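User: Predict the full complex structure for these chains.
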Amino acid sequence: MREGTSVSRLHAHDLTLAYDERAVAVDLAVRIPDRSFTVVIGPNACGKSTLLKALARMLKPQQGAVYLDGAVIDTYRSKEVARRLGLLPQSAVAPGGITVGDLVARGRYPHQSLVRQWSSADEAVVADAMRLTGVADLADRMVDELSGGQRQRVWLAMVLAQQTPILLLDEPTTFLDIAHQLEVLDLCADLHTDRDHTVVAVLHDLNHACRYASHLIVMRPGGEIAAEGPPADVITAELVEDVFGLPCRVMDDPETAAPMIVPARRKARAATAVPAR
Amino acid sequence: MITGGVLRSRRPEVSLRIDHRAFTVTAVLLSLLAGTCVVALSTGEYPVPAREVLAALVGNGSPGMDFIVLELRLPRVLTAALTGAALAISGALMQSLTRNPLGSPDVVGFTNGSATGALVVIIVLDGSMMDIAFGALVGGVATAVVVYLLALRRGVEGFRFILVGIGVSAMLLAANSYLITRAAWQEGIEAQAWLIGTLNDVSWEHATVVGLTVAVLVPAALSQHRELALLEMGDAVAIALGVRVERARVVLIGASVTLSAVATAATGPIAFVALAAPQLARRLTRATSPGMMSSAAMGALLLTASDLAVQRVFAPALLPVGVATGSIGGLYLIWLLTTQWRGERP
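Assistant: Here is the predicted structure of the two-chain assembly.
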């Protein structure tokens, strides 16, 4: 494994996360290994997106703190954080009538100021981000006119234009068909292997997570971390049944030899009386 | 790669983005505004040739012309242009912050709040002109605070803000009607006149107050212009890009509320300029970020032209300008509701 065992650039201690009174996670400690492709999985409402929000300072923890490069994340200036850590949220809205180039260019905001609105460096970085995500040919098209897969790549290009070593992606494959899901994940994998980015993604599909992640964080309801580590070490039939309530078999993926989860037949699942969630 | 042009200094520190289309639209609107102003200054009961209007403006006029142009007509024209600009910028900011064309200060109750403040001063406290303006200012700002607090729940979401605002607005309207029924006859007339919004008796004081407010708040709002554009993509994107969301919002809401409250205090509630001007400007510029300057130019032109129309078309009746903007704005609102809400963006 390439990721070191020393203190990572992004980690959190004793996190208590809550919306108003409803606690989502208590005493959570998490460490994102540097230069890893970390994937967070867990059943619905287990707090994976909430954890990502806390790591990206969208949600202030009620207790504990998130540390970026050794200091509490809130102590940095907002733009300083945005130069180190990028986030693609689920709820991004493209302004009506905006072109692909203009949207990607907005990712340069943390590097700009009132009098430095579009330097030649900005231009080079945006061009690079669009090339990498394969949207360079679409630069003058309207974002509204694009397909879901194209649009997701445009958003990724915007986050890449931010030039952050750490990227957080909240369910980047939602609403995409299987081929486009893999396309987005391939892109993330390239960022991780070729460009040394630390990528953290929340995913729903366990098999995608196992195939692409270098580091898995498995959360159970209540915001507790059930297991973490390389997929091959972490994923077992017992864990999946324990966390997701799904009896299954774990086999080797014939393509990649990563663990592959095959749900048990309906009868077998009904036999093990799983508490309904 | 990006739309528009870029102005760069030789050294890398300075580079400014220019939207050619927005620039052109603003320039055209401003020249139309200048033309309208000259017409408004030269026509009327005592026609003054345009040449003499210009002479008076640069300080070379005869005493008689100076009086007509500079004392009688110019305050009204300037107040109309500045109030229109203030309302339009106020509307542009609020519509952008709520991500909804209906999120303008006259829809979410700020204007009715100003009216309540003014009516309390007219009817209950029997105050002077300045007291009325102050009452309107306080009423508008207080309404904004109340709507904001009522809509606040883990951050303010645009649509909830608008719905709460419409509710508060309706209650204030009821309060306003009640206040008028309680008024003595003379005060009732005064209150009714104020409620429609008129430029009939504005003076240099009005122009100065609105002008100073615009001069202070518009640069403040412009300093947060890029942040406003990013906020339109959702708070999460804005925070992720490093926008100090709360600070930007406080500055922008503060500017919007104060602009609309001061404008309303000066002239009474003038309908629909805040709602329509930014939307019309945005359609002309086809910009993807809220254009404050183009909105301001559009608002100034709309109000100046409406005021000219009510003065000249309906003379000698002293028709309040709110009647003109109200009827134009009503048509616009219907058009907006029928086209926009059937279209892609709700």
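The interface with chain A takes residues 1-3, 6, 8, 12-17, 99, 154, 223, 226, 229-230, 232-237, 239-244, 286, 288-289, 344-345 of chain B (CB under 8 Å).
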